[in-house]
Here is the input.
Amino acid sequence: MSIKDQLIAERLPEHVAIIMDGNGRWAKQRGNSRIFGHKHGVTAVREVTEASAELGVKYLTLYAFSTENWGRPKTEVDALMALLVSTISSETKTLLKNNVKLNTIGCTETLPKSVRAKLNDCIQKTSGNTGLTLTLALSYSSRWELIEAVKNIASDVKENKLDVSEISDGLIGDYLSTAGIPDPELMIRTSGEHRISNFLLWQLAYSELYFCDILWPDFRREDYYRALLDFQSRERRFGKTGDQIKK
Ligand code: IPE
Ligand code: IPE
Ligand code: MG
Here is the structure.
């Protein structure tokens, strides 16, 4: 039986988040520039997006560019921005065909105008789609997001729009850029690194974490199915005992 056939539809995560890592090392292994790796990473993005849409996963969040990534050499940052523009242009048609809605999280005002324009165009064109919501984390870091949320909560309290007693788990979630999106049940990171790198710190509180050694440009549908199958074998206890969960 194929890995895909072993997946139980009712036990698929509603939201999968992915730290797409290893493009630079993939390129280096081939004696090529880092941007060559980023370009090949697009194939993997297409594969997981299509597979998610097909399986009925409702939300897919991809870490595409972190706040910290602004510190990379300018040539790499510029090339990544150009790649974003060309990829969004070429993929909009496929997103429409697959009923995928595009969304972003992060400090997108800091992105070049050309990137913002393309993103807005694609977000607007796909806004009526009802299948998968694909969220790109761009110029995103979780601490940035939490700082924004704290500032907004403080200002609403100051303006008497909110009472301190109303601050709860749910309310904090409503002030994050992922408001309205359930927390990811599964977070995947490729390339063998075992860290979160400032990604969705609040939202990953109870996510299952899956790490694999595959470098992102090599990640394919089968690898994604393998991660989903592994997820389905986990016992999610949320602080309770195993016996309580089995009841
Ligand atoms: C992930 O691959 C893509 C981005 C962070 C934009 P990397 O570029 O981090 O690749 P490695 O980790 O250096 O191999
Ligand atoms: C995390 O990868 C950010 C993205 C995948 C966009 P990095 O390669 O930037 O993370 P570190 O530096 O290894 O933690
Ligand atoms: Mg990396």
